[in-house]
């Protein structure tokens, strides 16, 4: 946990065993410490499956993940055991949307390539078409995964609901923010990418698993699409020899969609509140109900 305040929210109420290492909790540490715990505070880097649940035993009442995504937890196994699941929806939507816009512009306006060029003396002079990329003006931005809880009608936000095929063929920019589920796994495959405009840009801030990454690499290498900006990929961290890191038309970020200081503090606190509520037998602030 990253903040004293939410540490306290838990320690005031229960005994806490905390992984304080720099990276994610190692699997054997998790398995070795989860036994007889009543609540489990986890991150998207922790795979919560039947092995962990078996180790935890019958006392476990809640698994709370400090994330909106829940593809790392075996929801069916947890529900089967009558254990509650909590996650952190809504509070990171703005932060992630901001990052999607930043990533879109970084990709389309070639910001990293341009700053790199300036640093190594490739900036010889202002030049009419140097470092140009597609602009947002008059463009169509296709969004996959507008939140279903969103009350606003598509019309009210100047959008139009279209089918997936139309989104692929008509968009100049495609931004993906849907959950990874069996339905969305590799939704973006070779067939989908090949329907996109050669001038289009693909942005992903959801999960790497919604993309057939080899298919994406191929369309980027062959110029079948203009570029891609990815905050998520498969696997994470992306191995240094991945072709994605060598492509000029691909911007890679290390999964920082929700990485605003306040947002992450709020996520941690919400996670702690869910755990305390579950242990008190009260309704959870943000239970995952499927
Ligand atoms: C981030 O990816 C999250 O699911 O919260
Ligand atoms: C750009 O700086 C311009 O003046 O066109």
TrEMBL record:
Entry keywords, A to Z: Oxidoreductase
Chain ranges of the D-isomer specific 2-hydroxyacid dehydrogenase catalytic domain: 8-287
Annotated Gene3D superfamilies: NAD(P)-binding Rossmann-like Domain
Every D-isomer specific 2-hydroxyacid dehydrogenase NAD-binding domain range: 150-257
UniProt keyword annotation of Oxidoreductase present: yes
PROSITE patterns found in the cross-reference section: D_2_HYDROXYACID_DH_3
Family the entry assigns: Belongs to the D-isomer specific 2-hydroxyacid dehydrogenase family.
UniProt-recorded name of the protein: Glyoxylate reductase/hydroxypyruvate reductase
